[in-house]
Amino acid sequence: MLNFRRVNLLTAAATLAMMALYAVRPFPLVYFLLPVLTWSAFVFYGCYNIDSGFFIRIVCEGDGSEKRMALTFDDGPSAEHTPAILDLLMAEGVKATFFCIGKNIVGNETLLKQIHEEGHTIGNHSYSHHFLFDLFSRKKMMADLKSCDQIVNSTINVTPRMFRPPFGVTNPQVRDATIEGKYFPVGWNIRSLDTVIHDRNRLMKRVISRFAPGAILLLHDSGKYTTTVLRDIITEAQHQGYTFVTVDHLLKIKPYA
Q1: What pTM does this model have?
Q2: Which residues constitute the domain of residue 145?
């Protein structure tokens, strides 16, 4: 499988080969852009495809031998939407995993405690979720992640081990921060797009058509559209014989450091 290191080596080898060829038989210099453009295409793909394993292996699904799936919610806690999701999960007897943004915990500490006390697990989704997070230096990224850890720990006395990169973007800095912080990186293999798809039927069809044993489903508790389909997603999954478990149970890992 191609990864960042191998692509760098192949690009260097291709460039050296072209230089040797040019010394023997000159050709238009613009051709030297080909390795650069190819390298850029691979890196772009690796950055924006969380399941590519291009920079670091991120677990995006569990064991497919059993009909189990994990519901995950990003970007909360939200005073406006998280309570309704928790009530629905409680009514359905379903446990989920919440990848929380540290700054959103501020003022919503009671909500975080409720999530924890009701048996759901908490993951780190950064403190700032800044739109330029993936461009932070490793040091700044580490400080951001640790700030999230600290507010979670000060609220519910546990430190998240699971980490989901903001926007699902990875690069060398994210890789280094993940390794240095000893986080277990978690992705998904069902992306609901519930933050951009506002048509209920379309959203349902997208999610249900992707059901598979061991799937990790990405939802958000930061918008109103998720609550309109969540009960039906759970009902349909159960009708198909699936059960829902938290990510740590699906992957058989410890959720907290």
Answers
A1: 0.94
A2: 68-251
CB 256 within 8 A of CB 161: yes
> What is the per-residue pLDDT across 84-112, written as a single tens digit (0 to 9) for each?
999 999 999 999 999 999 999 999 999 99
- Tell me which residues are annotated as active site: 74, 220
Q: Retrieve residue 11's tokens.
A: 């690009």
User: What percent of the chain is predicted at pLDDT more than 70?
Assistant: 100
Q: Do residue 113 and residue 21 come from a single domain?
A: no
Amino acid found at 38: T
CB 225 within 8 A of CB 128: no
Contact present, 241 and 67 (Cβ < 8 Å): yes
CA atoms of 169 and 39, how far apart (whole Å) = 17
Q: Which residue is listed with tokens 């973007």?
A: 169
Looking at the domain assignment, is residue 247 inside a domain?
yes
Distance of CA 245 to the CA centre of its chain: 17
| Centroid of chain to Cα 150 | 20
**Which residue type, as a one-letter code, is found at position 18?**
M
Burial of 48 (0-12, 13-18, 19+ CB in 10 A): middle
Query: Coil, strand, or helix at residue 214?
Result: coil
Confidence of residue 195 (pLDDT cuts 50, 70, 90): very high
Rounded Cα distance, 122 and 156, in Å:
10
| Structural tokens at position 209 | 């058509």
Considering the domain boundaries, does residue 256 fall inside one? no
Q: What is the largest CA-CA distance in the chain?
A: 74
